[in-house]
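Cast an eye over this sequence plus tokens and walk me through the fold:

***
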Amino acid sequence: MTSTEQFRKVPWAPEYEVSDQGRVRSTVVRHRNSKPSLRYLNGWTKPTGYTMVCIDGQTWRVHRLVYRIFVGELIDDMSICHMDGDPANNAVSNLRQENHAENMSHKKRHGTHLSGETHGSAKHTQEQADAVRNAVAQAEYYPNGRLKAGERQRIAADFGVASSLISTIQRRPNAWRA
């Protein structure tokens, strides 16, 4: 059994419709006596994989638009989550409203949580972070557990990183995770 795609009008912009499968179209009447012509909006995809469209000068993430039209208003401080982890799948059946912690839990489960070297701000690989960690473990320490003078700077120079990174790894060994 195949289901039929269902479209609903956007209440604040009635010349636009959104489908339960995540497609957006314009129903603009081009000539006074003609039928409305349907034009599907391609939108654009952000580097994060989310599809965006512009409706009456306002930019929307398609998954939030679909959720709002088919399910209801968005609750403050809640996220609209893609249950399969694919930000391009904007079908209403794939969307659910969750708090931030639940959203992060799902991202970790389906492998879309960015951490370690997959994070956009990462400057080092997991292998490099492990090597720094090993060097910190092998360094010379005072009896009170602090690194001896100059050790942090020596390790930082060996790896071409800031000494503050060595401090972070020393204080929080799991600061870098793959």
Q: What stands out?
A: The chain has a mean pLDDT of 83. The longest helix spans residues 126-138. Residues 7-113 form a domain with the Homing Intron 3 (I-Ppo) Encoded Endonuclease; Chain A fold (CATH 3.90.75.20). The radius of gyration is 25 Å.
